[in-house]
Design a protein that fits this description.
Length: 1005
């Protein structure tokens, strides 16, 4: 807000002022009058008593020859005038919205031409003089920024003004070169630039040593390098030393920059013709050696003061040729085509430089040796010197025209590539070293776990497409979208195996464990999204592969396998060109031997196109995604090395397009860092993968269970043909009449069941088996192959029914009712459990021994005990919440399910069995039940007799139905003084429920 006092102070300094619109630069009065006279005191009161308007200063004669240099771009100030601080307190300095105003006065007798307003376009600055005005403090810019005086406002008079403006004009001409040079002025390049530019400006523009020094000092002030400070004195010494020498500036200036400088030369002032002719000869006499040096320089890096070439050549094992690789951003890629293009670019730049020089020479000849009405072909009128120059120029122009022909330059480039192969050859064993994981910002050392700087000496052909975050990763704050995605993909007990194997496949450079991961589930559930996300994290280390080609008796050609030699992991991504048919599955016309070799570190035949056969070893991991029903794996060796993970039966209402890209964009660095960190844990666990995360305890040890061969085979069978096994277990064909059938009930006298009832029973059966059910249509088609389907009128409506079958355990079939749940509350708690579980996976367990694929952790070692007890509880809680959260619309709850009722949690045991006065819920057992002779429990985990004996319980009866264990314990064995210890110990590692006698007795072993 400008006051009368602010305006009066400026007028007292001899300045004419005008009012401007509020927060604007536009005058509110016709201000031409105030270019000739200053405002009166009365006018000042009128304008500024209300403090509403901005204020402007009229420049020129009326303000005592006052002018202002408007630096709208602060970046240029150090080049033009040096440090702005040197002027504060000495003259008029105002901080504006984007830069500074620097004001001076000229002497009263100064020539009028110097006080005129003008622009210095190359510098990007304006001079406000006669017929111009500037906004003055304390006005407010439209952006809201207030103009401020820097120091006490004074105005210095420039006595030597002619020299001042001459320097300003020269700086404006120099700025053309400045803006081209500035991007190349950085650490590692400055010394070369100082030498090269000193020679260039000395020879091309006849600049004196002082002019070159001031120019380079100005650039250095504009773009200092804090980690390697170079003072004005340093530059002065370097310029002086270079000026006295006669270096070849072409060796010190980047070729692209040199092209730009030549272009500016052709548009600028005159210079030495002999120097240009000499330079033109050098450019046009380019051969293979020059191309070789140029290409090597383009790919040379300075690391800790040492020059390292970023080009490597390895031998092709099948021929006398070699493959060239070039380094960029931490890894190497095939480089021959890139180098050829760069070689062609080398000649294109030479031709551009030559064209600029030729034009300039011809123009200079015309200017120096001919009058305006003479032409350069009038050679006889000039001396021998001109004839010589003209002849040389014509010869060079012929060479210039010849080099435009690609057929002429191609042999030079080919010879240069031959020279590169000879000079950059390395042993093939150096390819993809096993000691590091390459990230965008460095290499993780697998021995020390430290992040090391990028280095062209390490020959990697792949890299993680993310930065490693050298800090702890919190899944809740760093990975919310990733964890949310995983929560809809797999159950909690499968999450560790999925994450460990994903990290292993994505990043680990060798193959210490010959495992294959199968991710199996319904369509559109997120399996492909996971693979595409992993591909985004390591695009160079991933490759698609056709599983159908490998497994069907067709030969997967040696040529097809060769590209996988440098890959980390493969996936079929459902790209099978000729899918394996149901008939082929049934007839077992599939062969797993090649798949076992590919992922078993066995020798395979490799052959690249047009090259001879050779043996090789592929160190690649496999993540194969399968829609239900999955491919039946009937090969024992394949089963042994397979990790099978079924997906959840999740309903995704809103499918998100390109979900993997959205997750990668938000959390790519954090996901990659998290996977690298759990890979360190997996390495310390000797690469033993938990196939399913189950924990049992007896006070001394905790066991991390894998799946035994029989259990794994059963899981694969169920996933590969769930309908077949459902029919075998849950249905039968009627053999006798209904009256004669004992223990079997059915829905009608004709043995008919509505399709929706059979499908709902199938969904329940799948849930009990831990697999996702097939879609209803697929199930109906497959079930119809065994039992006839027909339309029938039921309750006045036509519906489809299956006929001629008995549904075993028919008492479980009743009127379905859809589950209603409060999703929001459970989902929040479920996610909290997952966040904690993923955090726990970053901690390394303490392993006592490793037997038969089972990790045994000594719980007396506090870290191991705490970690695994924590994860056991989390997974149990996650599973309970998971079953509530992810229920498909077809998954219906029935009354009286055998072995599937929730029962009463063990923590409620004390309230029921020992007379708690607290209110009991609907599921509570009555007091009369509690007073019977036995207690009955069920759990998903098995507890041996020795476990109960440690609790003082001697008599225990146990039976198992499918995956649930049932226990019968005498009431006398659990006295009132034992129940607290019993309930806390029994519930510590598993979800245990109290059931009633009827449920226990209904279980058939």
């Amino acid at each position: 807000m400008v006051s009368y006092e602010d305006a009066k102070k400026l007028v007292d300094m001899g300045l004419s002022v005008i009012p401007l619109k509020e927060r604007d630069k536009e005058p509110i009065v016709a201000w031409k009058t105030y270019q000739e006279k200053k405002p009166t005191d009365e006018e000042l009161h009128t304008w500024y008593d209300n403090g509403k308007y901005n204020i402007g200063i009229v420049c020129g004669k009326v303000s005592g020859n006052f002018f202002v240099i408007d630096f709208d771009n602060k970046e240029i100030i150090p080049f033009v005038i040096g440090d702005i601080q040197n002027y504060i307190g000495k003259t008029y300095v105002v901080q504006t919205s984007r830069g500074y105003h620097l004001g001076f006065r000229l002497p009263p007798n100064a020539d009028e031409k110097y006080i005129k307003s003008r622009n210095f376009d190359n510098l990007g600055i304006n001079l406000k003089g006669e017929k111009g005005y500037v906004v003055a403090p304390p006005s407010i810019h439209p952006s809201g920024i207030t103009y401020q005086f820097m120091g006490e406002p004074k105005i210095e008079t420039i006595e030597n003004y002619e020299e001042f403006f001459k320097t300003l004009e020269e700086k404006d001409q120099e700025a053309k070169y400045l803006w081209e040079i500035l991007p190349y002025w950085h650490h590692g390049q400055r010394n070369n630039l100082i030498v090269g530019l000193t020679e260039f400006f000395k020879n091309k523009l006849n600049w004196k040593e002082d002019k070159i020094r001031f120019f380079l000092q100005g650039i250095n002030r504009m773009k200092p390098v804090p980690e390697d400070v170079m003072s004005d004195i340093d530059i002065e010494h370097k310029v002086k030393q270079s000026f006295e020498k006669n270096y070849n500036y072409r060796k010190f200036i980047d070729n692209t920059l040199l092209t730009k400088l030549y272009k500016l030369l052709s548009e600028g002032e005159g210079y030495n013709i002999n120097e240009d002719m000499k330079d033109l000869k050098t450019i046009l006499q380019t051969g293979a050696n020059a191309v070789f040096e140029y290409l090597m320089d383009q790919h040379t890096y300075k690391i800790n003061g040492k020059e390292i070439k970023g080009i490597k050549t390895i031998a092709d094992p099948d021929s006398d040729k070699e493959d060239i690789y070039i380094y960029k951003d931490g890894f190497y890629t095939r480089g021959e085509s890139i180098l050829k293009e760069e070689g062609e670019q080398f000649f294109r730049e030479r031709l551009i430089q030559s064209e600029s020089l030729i034009k300039r020479i011809e123009k200079e000849i015309q200017n120096k040796f001919f009058s305006n009405n003479e032409q350069t072909n009038d050679i006889e009128k000039n001396d021998e010197y001109l004839k010589k120059i003209n002849k040389e120029l014509e010869n060079l122009k012929e060479t210039y025209e010849r080099l435009k022909n690609k057929a002429v330059i191609t042999p030079y480039i080919s010879e240069a590539l031959f020279m590169i192969r000879r000079n950059t050859y390395v042993d093939r064993e150096t390819l993809n070293p096993k000691a590091h994981i390459p990230f965008k910002n460095g290499y993780i050392n697998l021995h020390t776990g430290e992040l090391e700087p990028l280095n062209p000496e390490l020959f990697y052909t792949w890299s993680i497409n993310a930065n490693y975050l050298n800090r702890p990763i919190d899944p809740k704050t760093d990975l919310p979208e990733f964890v949310k995605f995983l929560s809809t993909l797999v159950a909690p007990e499968h999450l560790p195996a999925l994450l460990y194997y994903s990290a292993y496949a994505l990043m680990y450079p060798s193959l210490p464990n010959h495992k294959i991961l199968w991710l199996v589930g319904k369509e559109r559930i997120g399996k492909g999204t996971l693979i595409r996300l992993l591909k985004l994290l390591n695009p160079k280390g991933f490759a698609s592969i056709s599983l159908a080609k490998i497994l069907k008796g067709e030969t997967y050609t040696r040529f097809d396998l060769a590209p996988y030699e440098t890959k980390n992991f493969v996936s079929d991504m459902e790209i099978t060109e000729k899918p394996i048919t149901e008939k082929e599955k049934r007839e077992k016309k599939i062969d797993f031997s090649l798949l076992n070799k590919i992922h078993g570190k066995d020798t395979v035949d490799l052959e690249e196109k047009f090259k001879s056969k050779r043996d090789g070893v592929l160190e690649i991991k496999g993540i194969y995604i399968q829609n239900l029903p999955m491919l039946p794996i009937n090969n024992k060796a394949t089963q042994e090395r397979s990790i099978v993970i079924p997906t959840l039966d999740t309903v995704i209402n809103n499918l998100i397009t390109d979900l993997e890209e959205k997750i990668f964009e938000k959390e790519g660095d954090a996901i990659a860092t998290y996977l690298a960190n759990i890979l360190k844990v997996l390495k310390e666990m000797n690469f033993q993968f938990p196939e399913i995360y189950r924990i049992l305890g007896n006070g001394d040890i905790i066991v991390w269970k894998g799946l035994n061969a029989n259990t794994k085979a059963e899981l694969i069978d169920n996933l590969s043909d769930p309908v077949k096994f459902f029919i075998e277990e849950k249905t039968d064909i009627p053999k006798i009449s209904e009256e004669e059938e004992e223990g079997i009930k059915h829905s009608s006298n004709t043995h008919e069941y509505p399709v929706k009832i059979i499908y709902s029973e199938f969904v329940k059966w799948c849930k009990g088996k831990g697999i996702a059910p097939l879609p209803k249509q697929t199930f109906t088609e497959k079930f119809s192959e065994f039992y006839p389907k027909k339309r029938k009128r039921v309750g006045g409506k036509l519906t489809y029914v299956f006929t001629n079958l008995i549904l075993l355990d028919d008492s479980q079939v009743g009127t379905p009712k859809k589950i209603q749940k409060d999703m929001q509350e459970n989902n929040s708690e479920y996610m909290e459990c997952l966040f904690q579980l993923m955090s726990n996976l970053l901690m390394t367990p303490l392993i006592e021994s490793n037997k038969g694929g089972i990790l045994i952790i000594n719980t007396k070692l506090e870290q191991g005990k705490k970690l695994f007890e924590s994860n056991a509880g989390l997974i149990s809680r996650c599973k309970s919440l998971c079953s509530n959260l992810f229920t498909s619309p077809e998954n219906l709850e029935k009354e009286g399910d055998q072995g599937s009722g929730q029962g009463i949690p063990i923590e409620e045991f004390s309230k029921i069995e020992h007379g708690s006065s607290e209110e009991k819920g609907e599921e509570s057992i009555s007091d009369s039940q509690a007073l019977k002779d036995y207690h009955y429990f069920k759990s998903e985990d098995y507890y041996p007799d020795s476990y109960f004996k440690n609790l003082g319980i001697q008599n225990i009866e146990h039976k198992q139905f499918r995956y649930t264990h049932y226990y019968k314990i005498p009431y006398s064995e659990i006295s009132k003084d034992k129940y607290t210890e019993f309930s806390s110990r029994f519930a510590s590692n598993s979800k245990v429920f109290v059931i009633d006698e009827n449920e226990y007795n209904s279980i058939k072993v």
